[in-house]
């Protein structure tokens, strides 16, 4: 009996919903996945103008829950009823998490808005800034900065440097149904693990409900291809909010590349490319055991080696190929090998000590004795 | 917003930087320093800077000429700076052929430095001199050195001289 009643109830609900949807004209709809913490996933069309309350009314019946017991989590935050979809920086095929509210956590703005301050160039590794996130946010609003960005290297499908989005998941179970206890306040909070505690809503999470947040980045310029679709953060590229002139050409550009030296030296992206190409041609890159083939701040500052070598993806594809080739050659030479003597081949040869004959591997195939 | 894409590498980027430096050096030259603006404007890669020995120093009343040569790699690469003309200052870091032993001109060069900061360093190098003499290895160096002082592997003399 009960199940029949449930079916009828759901039918009525669906009809009501259909009716409601029919009345609301969806101007440019967004296809979004709703993932519940019980494992089910719904695909729904949302109007960007809807607020979170509307979303709850639409999805609650599908999850068999009353709308007021549903909380919507996106990018580490439980979203407030009054926030509209378009304010959330959701892309096509993004995932929202719907969980039954066990407790009332603090509802807030989406993460991408609240950590806009990470973009400020004065963020230091040990975050000694005394101003709060709110103060910094206000000041960036005063300066008229609406959409500050993160930059990423998107390997698939864009194969290029792109604007990125900051996202968060549970460090233990990798579920996105997680609310962070605090916003990251410096890049270390984002890049290093176990710095921000969070509340994981995933019922199967072993360490939940208390867990750590794990931040990651997505490319903002292609439709999300699921939860494994990530991009490499190019955290040295930052919006030039305080209008710092480029070290080399003295122009004030935006965005800029901020080196990790104590002085936070800044170059524009064009001068960065020129710097790389100049040093590359003279083989003056540093071959670091831990970091790979890289460069320090052009002013020669201490502790300024670029740690994320994907920043060299800013180069043109030919320049990047040269970077890869030189880097590989340097590696072979360091490992005690020699380079293929055929002009222009450059493939590495690591000589086999037992055999006098050497063969160029993966290169031109020339043999020598 | 500046494009993220690597477009054409602006071939005249270094010239624009030099143009800016020239303007500011002509407008607000440091005391005792004067750049030959006409010459530099005709050929941005070769400048002549006139320098007067500062009052109260061993070089008071003397005047010198410095030559700056720039490559398109400027400012990622340091300029080639030498004393030229008939009066080469007699100084423990200046060879009689005009080459200067000053670390910011090679190892310690940084694109954050400029023609102006190089001039100021040379002025202060001269001003702090206590005894006018040539470097101890002058005659050997002058006979054997490369024409380009940047090719010299300098063994930097004590900076306190
Ligand atoms: Zn992409
Ligand atoms: Zn979890
Ligand atoms: Zn620049
Ligand atoms: Zn630096």
Automatic annotation (TrEMBL), chain A:
Ubiquitin-like domain ranges (all copies): 30-105
A GO cellular component annotation in the UniProt record: mitochondrion
Subcellular location as annotated: Cytoplasm
SUPFAM superfamilies: Ubiquitin-like (SSF54236)
Pfam families xref list: ubiquitin (PF00240), zf-RING_12 (PF17976), zf-RING_14 (PF17978)
UniProt-listed GO biological process terms: positive regulation of metabolic process; protein ubiquitination; ubiquitin-dependent protein catabolic process
Main localization category: cytoplasm
RING-type domain mapped to chain residues: 242-369
Gene Ontology terms, MF aspect: polyubiquitin modification-dependent protein binding; ubiquitin-protein transferase activity; zinc ion binding
This protein's pathway: Protein modification; protein ubiquitination
Signal sequence segment: none
InterPro entries assigned: BRcat_RBR_parkin, Parkin, Parkin_Znf-RING, RING-HC_RBR_parkin, TRIAD_supradom, Ubiquilin, Ubiquitin-like_dom, Ubiquitin-like_domsf
Keywords per UniProt: Cytoplasm, Metal-binding, Phosphoprotein, Repeat, Transferase, Ubl conjugation pathway, Zinc, Zinc-finger
Domain of life where this protein originates: Eukaryota
The protein's name: E3 ubiquitin-protein ligase parkin
UniProtKB/TrEMBL annotation, chain B:
Reactions performed catalytically: S-ubiquitinyl-[E1 ubiquitin-activating enzyme]-L-cysteine + [E2 ubiquitin-conjugating enzyme]-L-cysteine = [E1 ubiquitin-activating enzyme]-L-cysteine + S-ubiquitinyl-[E2 ubiquitin-conjugating enzyme]-L-cysteine; S-ubiquitinyl-[E1 ubiquitin-activating enzyme]-L-cysteine + [acceptor protein]-N-terminal-amino acid = [E1 ubiquitin-activating enzyme]-L-cysteine + N-terminal-ubiquitinyl-[acceptor protein]
PANTHER family with a match to the protein in the record: UBIQUITIN-CONJUGATING ENZYME E2 (PTHR24067)
Official protein name in the record: N-terminal E2 ubiquitin-conjugating enzyme
GO terms assigned for molecular function: ubiquitin conjugating enzyme activity
Keyword list, A-Z: Transferase, Ubl conjugation pathway
GO BP: protein ubiquitination
Broad class of enzyme this protein falls into: transferase
Span of domain UBC core: 13-161
InterPro entries: Ub_conjugating_enzyme, UBC, UBQ-conjugating_enzyme/RWD
EC number: 2.3.2.23, 2.3.2.25
Segments traversing the membrane: none
């Amino acid at each position: 009996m009960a199940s029949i009643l449930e079916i009828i109830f759901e039918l009525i609900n669906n009809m009501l919903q259909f009716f409601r949807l029919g009345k609301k004209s969806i101007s440019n709809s967004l296809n979004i996945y709703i993932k519940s913490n019980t494992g089910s996933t719904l695909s729904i069309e949302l109007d960007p103008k809807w607020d979170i309350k509307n979303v709850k009314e639409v999805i609650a019946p599908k999850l068999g829950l009353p709308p007021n017991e549903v909380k919507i989590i996106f990018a580490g935050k439980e979203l407030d009823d009054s926030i509209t979809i378009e304010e959330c920086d959701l892309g096509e095929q993004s995932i929202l998490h719907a969980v039954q509210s066990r407790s009332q956590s603090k509802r807030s703005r989406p993460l991408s808005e609240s950590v806009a301050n990470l973009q400020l160039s004065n963020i230091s590794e040990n975050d000694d800034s005394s101003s709060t996130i709110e103060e910094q946010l206000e000041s960036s609003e005063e300066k008229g900065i609406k959409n500050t960005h993160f930059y990423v290297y998107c390997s698939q499908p864009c194969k290029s440097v792109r604007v990125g989005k900051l996202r968060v998941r549970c460090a233990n179970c990798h579920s996105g149904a997680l609310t962070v206890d605090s916003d990251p306040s410096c890049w270390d909070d984002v890049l290093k693990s176990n710095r921000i505690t969070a509340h994981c809503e995933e019922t199967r999470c072993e360490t939940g409900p208390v867990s750590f947040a794990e931040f990651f980045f997505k490319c903002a310029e292609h439709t999300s291809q699921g939860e494994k679709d990530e991009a490499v953060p190019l955290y040295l590229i930052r919006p030039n909010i305080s209008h710092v002139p480029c070290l080399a050409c003295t122009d004030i550009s935006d965005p800029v590349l901020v080196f990790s030296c104590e002085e936070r030296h800044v170059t524009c992206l064009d001068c960065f490319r020129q710097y790389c190409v100049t040093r590359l041609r003279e083989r003056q890159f540093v071959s670091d055991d831990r970091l790979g083939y890289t460069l320090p701040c052009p002013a020669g500052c201490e502790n300024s080696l670029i740690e994320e070598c994907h920043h060299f993806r800013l180069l043109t594809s030919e320049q990047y190929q040269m970077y890869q080739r030189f880097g590989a050659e340097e590696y072979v030479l360091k490992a005690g090998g020699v380079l293929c003597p055929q002009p222009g081949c450059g493939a590495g040869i690591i000589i086999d000590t037992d055999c006098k004959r050497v063969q160029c591997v993966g290169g031109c195939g020339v043999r020598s004795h | 917003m500046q494009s993220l894409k690597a477009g054409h590498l602006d071939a005249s980027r270094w010239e624009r930087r030099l143009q800016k430096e020239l303007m500011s050096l002509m407008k607000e030259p440091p005391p005792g320093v004067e750049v030959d603006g006409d010459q530099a404007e005709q050929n941005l890669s070769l400048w002549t800077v006139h320098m007067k020995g500062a009052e109260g120093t061993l070089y008071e009343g003397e005047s010198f000429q410095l030559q700056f040569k720039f490559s398109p790699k400027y400012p990622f690469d340091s300029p080639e700076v030498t004393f030229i003309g008939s009066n080469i200052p007699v100084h423990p870091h200046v060879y009689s052929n005009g080459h200067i032993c000053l670390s910011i001109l090679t190892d310690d060069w940084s694109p954050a430095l400029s023609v102006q900061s190089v001039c100021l360093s040379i002025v202060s190098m001269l001003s702090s001199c206590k005894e006018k003499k040539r470097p101890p290895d002058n005659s050997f160096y002058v006979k054997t050195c490369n024409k380009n002082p940047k090719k010299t592997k300098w063994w930097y003399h004590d900076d306190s001289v």
